[in-house]
Design brief:
Elements lengths: L2 H22 L4 H8 L3 H13 L3 E3 L14 E3 L5 E7 L3 E8 L4 E8 L7 H16 L4 E8 L2 E3 L2 E4 L11 H9 L3 E5 H8 L11 E6 L3 E7 L2 E3 L30 H4 L1 H8 L4 H9 L3 H25 L3 E4 L2 H4 L1 H15 L9 E4 L6 H16 L7
Parallel strand pairs: 3-6, 6-9, 10-13, 13-14
Antiparallel strand pairs: 1-2, 3-4, 4-5, 7-8, 10-11, 11-12
């Protein structure tokens, strides 16, 4: 490495440090110097290009105690943004995220996507992305799919077979003119609980459901994907050897007992809102359907707990909506089946991000890369 290359790497490393500090919270140059260990001169040298390019903004001076007034730096409210998009069995969703982690706009459009051709799906996603991103610079887009992903292509998606083998990332890039990163929905929902803030610690499993069920496994503050990207396929953990036939070709998979479509069918309801109202009214059929699903889900989650030994389970998506009626059955199964349960009670939490965790994580995938690889901000 030449001296010039070395200096460039040092500068990028320092810039990354400053940006990460600002993601944590705004601060004056003096405050940032104290938090990062960099000199004020170095900070001024690093932040000037960010200010000139509309990435940061300097707020009016404020007096806090003795000394000179400080001018806090923060991410520009009209600065570059990232968009997260989700293609799910029952809906399309998008969210715009600033570099500071603030949600700027979001939309969720109910739609049955199971039989829609890939080109039409991508056209509809692209239109939604343009709608929420507006005129601001778009850093890129994260795209979430309920399936196994490899090199921008869906290699397995039992509930969205028309998208298997399609280069979705490439197709959306062609429509938007920006880089698109494709990942599994469960992984991205888990990432939303890590970036920009840790909402469930550094070791947890995030479980969410639509027709299928996915789990994002987080170990040591990083999403664990496994060697082939199949880690966290909770929906296809077998809990009954000769049980109900699954779309994956196996039998007795968790999703055939605890998927949202199964819960709705057993409860005699068509939509999640209707199910929620029935549960509030104490409808016996709805209560039993959710309890049965919770028991099946708890068996599957206990298997993950015994494999990964993490202290926290976060229920997201429709499970977060149903949490008050679902959690008791899930916790009961976990308490009886998790081997570490006698020594340490496993926490069961409802996600604070609800149904938008997936798109928030998809957008966060892009903002995280932009902060960790600052050269992207000036591309």
């Amino acid at each position: 490495m030449t001296t010039v290359d070395h200096l460039r790497q040092v500068r990028l490393g320092n810039l990354r440090t400053v940006l990460l500090a600002l993601v944590d919270r705004p601060g004056s140059r003096a405050d940032l110097a104290a938090r990062t260990g960099l000199t004020k001169a170095t900070l001024s040298n690093l932040t000037e290009p960010l200010l000139a390019n509309g990435i940061l903004v300097e707020e009016p001076a404020t007096l806090a105690g003795m000394g000179r007034p400080s001018k806090p730096l923060r991410f520009h409210p009209d600065g570059p943004v990232a968009v997260g998009a989700e293609i799910n069995v029952s809906h399309l969703a998008v969210e715009t995220l600033g570099l500071d982690g603030e949600t700027l706009d979001r939309h969720l459009v109910p739609a049955d996507m199971r039989k829609v051709p890939a080109d039409e799906v991508l056209d509809r996603v692209a239109a939604l992305v343009r709608e929420v991103s507006g005129p601001r610079k778009l850093l890129g887009a994260g795209l979430a799919i309920p399936g196994v992903v490899h090199d921008g292509v869906v290699v397995r998606a039992p509930n969205l077979p028309k998208l298997v083998g399609v280069p979705l990332a490439e197709g959306l890039t062609a429509r938007l003119g920006v880089e698109v990163e494709l990942d599994n929905e469960a992984n991205l929902a888990a990432l939303a609980h890590l970036w920009p803030k840790h909402l469930a610690g550094e070791d947890f499993v995030h479980v969410t459901a639509d027709v299928g069920i996915g789990a994002g496994v987080v170990l040591g503050g990083e999403v664990y994907r496994g060697a082939s990207g199949f880690a966290g396929e909770l929906g296809h953990v077998v809990i009954e050897r000769n049980g109900v036939r699954c779309t994956c070709g196996s039998r007795g998979c968790v999703e055939r007992y605890a998927g949202l479509d199964v819960i709705l069918r057993e409860a005699g309801r068509r939509h999640l809102d209707s199910l929620g109202k029935a549960l509030q009214a104490g409808d016996p059929k709805a209560v039993e359907a959710v309890r049965n699903a919770g028991e099946a889900l708890g068996v599957g989650i206990a298997t993950l707990m015994n494999l990964f030994d993490v202290p926290t389970v976060v229920l997201g998506g429709s499970y977060a909506v149903l949490y008050d009626h679902l959690s008791e059955a899930v916790q009961s199964e976990m308490d009886g089946r998790v081997l570490a349960g006698g020594e340490r009670h496993t926490r069961l939490l409802a996600s604070p991000l609800g149904e938008f965790a997936v798109v928030r994580g998809a957008a966060g995938l892009i903002t995280r890369h932009a902060v960790q690889q600052p050269e992207r901000l000036f591309a």
